[in-house]
Amino acid sequence: MNSWAPVNEPPESAEELGEVVEELRRHLLWQEETGGPVLLADATKLAAERSASLRSMLPPRGAVAKVPPTEPVQAPSSPPRAETPPPAAPPPAAVSASPPAIRAPVTATSNGMLLDVPQQAPRYPGPLPGVVEGERPTLDQIRRELGDCRRCKLCTGRKNIVFGVGNPRADLVFVGEGPGENEDIQGVPFVGAAGELLTKMIQAMGFSRDEIYICNVVKCRPPGNRNPEADEIAACEPFLRSQLLAIQPKVIVALGKFAAQTLLRDTTPITRLRGQWREYQGVKLMPTFHPAYLLRSPAEKRKAWEDLQQVMKIFGKQAGART
């Protein structure tokens, strides 16, 4: 008789103990095979009940001489006994815990509960709720969807939303960064000093402002004309992309790094992006310097003019007077 067994214990008790251990082992194997990160709540309850039963079968403290070996040791004279392979894991109905439903990614909390983990949403979520997938929206639809926008913190300091202006079927679209002080007051993009320079650039290309369309990455003025922040760009980006979907221009001119980097998903500096034809969803895109930067760095106007001349060639325009 093994020294760890209680004295005068009926043989059935040892067999029952083995069955309990085997059942728990099977359940743990099933958990591992099905990818369960933790025991489910009902399995935990079962383990607690079985643990209480086991404790009632153990001898008092001091009566255990040693930890039982994992496998019984056979006497050398005894003939070897054929090992019975462990039974295959039973189907979910054979154990008390039901298998978890297959769901999108889950995680375990400290109390053992399984919770759904939402997948990280892409930065650009796609068409706006009021725009049907695959259909060409109108600028009026997009403006109604924008409403009295409160989607980011820029709403707290603005006077007006600056949506965009120009021909709703323009072949040429200029995309800037964000409204300045004058734009915020009037609700129209590029009407300040930078706007005056942009108007001259457009006219030198052989266009008028009524022929083209102008909008910005963000529709509300950042405080103190600071750069727009990532969360602000993310909140406004669906509206910018929907505007371009509505207009479907032949060419987009991205004015400055924020317009170019947002549309191209490219963090390359504007000094290296400018002057190189790129594509935005099949539309030719020319990155160049922002007019506000050109006002601070007049020597860079020559490079911007070279960029715009490439755009003019697409439309068969002749060079006008330089700005």
TrEMBL record:
Q: Name the EC number(s).
A: 3.2.2.27
Where, by residue number, does the polypeptide cross the bilayer? Answer: none
The answer, when asked if Magnesium is one of the entry's keywords, is no
In the UniProt record, does the keyword Transferase occur?
no
Q: Which UniProt keywords apply?
A: 4Fe-4S, DNA damage, DNA repair, Hydrolase, Iron, Iron-sulfur, Metal-binding
* CDD domains, alphabetized: UDG-F4_TTUDGA_SPO1dp_like
GO molecular function (one): 4 iron, 4 sulfur cluster binding
Which reaction(s) does its UniProt entry say it catalyses? Hydrolyzes single-stranded DNA or mismatched double-stranded DNA and polynucleotides, releasing free uracil
Region Disordered, annotated ranges: 50-99
Q: Which domain of life is it from?
A: Bacteria
Ranges of compositional bias, category Pro residues: 77-93
Q: Which residues form the Uracil-DNA glycosylase-like domain?
A: 163-309
> What does the record list as GO biological process?
DNA repair
What the entry lists under InterPro entries is as follows:
UDG_Type-4/5, Ura-DNA_glyco_family4, Uracil-DNA_glycosylase-like, Uracil-DNA_glycosylase-like_sf
Which PANTHER family does the protein's record reference? TYPE-4 URACIL-DNA GLYCOSYLASE (PTHR33693:SF1), TYPE-5 URACIL-DNA GLYCOSYLASE (PTHR33693)
Family, per entry: Belongs to the uracil-DNA glycosylase (UDG) superfamily. Type 4 (UDGa) family.
Please name the NCBIfam families in this protein's record: UDG_fam4
What name does this protein carry?
Answer: Type-4 uracil-DNA glycosylase
Species the sequence originates in? Stigmatella aurantiaca (strain DW4/3-1)
Q: What lineage, starting at the top, does this entry show?
A: Bacteria, Pseudomonadati, Myxococcota, Myxococcia, Myxococcales
